[in-house]
TrEMBL record:
Protein name: Cytochrome P450
Keyword Membrane: yes
Location of this chain's protein in the cell: Membrane
Co-factor requirement: heme
Keywords tagged on the record: Heme, Iron, Membrane, Metal-binding, Oxidoreductase, Transmembrane, Transmembrane helix
Amino acid sequence: MEEKKNLSSISSSGMMMLTCMVISWIFIHRWNQRSKKGPKTWPLVGAAIEQLMNYDRMHDWLVDYLSELKTVVVPMPSTTYTYIADPVNVEHVLKNNFANYPKGEVYHSYMEVLLGDGIFNVDGDLWRKQRKTASFEFASKNLRDFSTIVFREYALKLSGILCQASVSVQQIDMQELLMRMTLDSICKVGFGVEIGTLAPQLPDNRFAQAFDTANIVVTLRFIDPLWRIKRFLNVGSEALLDKSIKIIDDFTYKMIRKRKLEIEEAKESRKNDKQIKHDILSRFIELGENPESKLTEKSLRDVVLNFVIAGRDTTATTLSWSIYLIMTHPHVADKLFSELKALEEDRAKEEKISLLPYDPEDPKSFNERVAQFAGLLTYDSLGRLSYLHAAITETLRLYPAVPQDPKGILEDDILPDGTKVKAGGMVTYVPYSMGRMEYNWGPDAASFKPERWLKEGFFQNASPFKFTAFQAGPRICLGKDSAYLQMKMTLAILCRFFDFTLVPMHPVKYRMMTILSMAHGLKLKVARRS
Ligand code: HEM
């Protein structure tokens, strides 16, 4: 009995000692960081708790730290994230020492389920080959001309839906409509397939919903240490991901089969090769006919999904933020309207046509007039809209569609500002923070001012290492010109013919996913204007 008592008192004093040691360890760990700038860490878990607690506002959490520090180091349980906002560091990572900062294994393993081995998710030869094939396509004048027609046609469809909503005094979710428009156009321009999600009755869009869910869940993996266990057990977010991927794959493989069949039929009917319309997908399908290319059905699926994420989400979210910012800055809306009216008159003179008189109260004459205006918008005439170009660029400075972009680290390195980074960690350049830093843009960095991009009325670009919305260096966005073309076509039509107001109390804030979309959409009321 006595022996038992002694044993239990030894074990409880042992426990106490252990607890004291752990508390001292935590205390010393925290004490050593008392003057540290940047997120403070805890033993073992690093800064994961603080990052998790700020997950929904992570971009602004980083803004707070980066405005003091330019480089923020965030240790996590299994790796270290280094966030950079100084253009000198960004140039080092994206260009000068490009080979040391690939997408990397970690990023690849997190995103593989959605992006597979597509251009966004690979390095080395696999990336180079896809970049070469896609660059070829993007450089073609055929694609540019075809895109102009498609973008105009779909912007007009959207305008028709807005006109109808204004007649029936219905509120709309602009972001949702824009996502439909950009999905339809990337499928048409990129894969030669008409999917019609922007039809007036707005058909059910299971693919888009599944795609959004998958995007949210894979982004969560970057800060969820339990995701591999969840995937193994197929529970929670990972079970949802699994379901979404099945829907996505089903849609994508059907589209590929359809396109292959069309190409076969075109060949059989002996149309010469020039008559088979070239798009990104058919270029890859043709490549796949050569067995040495090692392109499989799965590779084509990856091509499609990478271009959907590239072409649909980025453009639609930028358009949504642009409309929101223009609408909430009336002096910008007025200047833009004047620029559009001036272009309309100049173009009518050039084409020697008279502009149709119309009554905004009469939808028929209104729609005819919109269509006439759209017909005047060509690739060249859109190029003259400097204020519109500046307004879109200013939107991307404050609300970049890709708000942060992580890179792997192959070998230990020292960034130009002296920060040491270790092999196996990650360096992330942060367009969202970079656009809001006074040390990058001056004291008015937080204000929406398209004028900052204009010199004597003409658009002036900034260094791509400071304005990083399209990345920079060898992996700079391939679709930038195409995206501007679509955004300018759409905004020219919408801002010339409609007034927008936010539905009262509608919350406008971002959602945490790889793309900076609006968490609750953009609920608006629409009115036709003369
Ligand atoms: C506002 C619109 C857009 C923005 C802000 C944007 C931004 C970006 C960014 C930040 C990247 C780098 C991603 C990374 O490697 O981590 C990127 C890459 C890319 N973008 Fe865009 N993008 C836009 C529209 C488009 C469009 C419309 C297309 C094509 C239809 C496109 C095609 C691509 C491709 C193919 C890459 C991969 C380049 C490579 O890895 O070599 N983008 N884009």
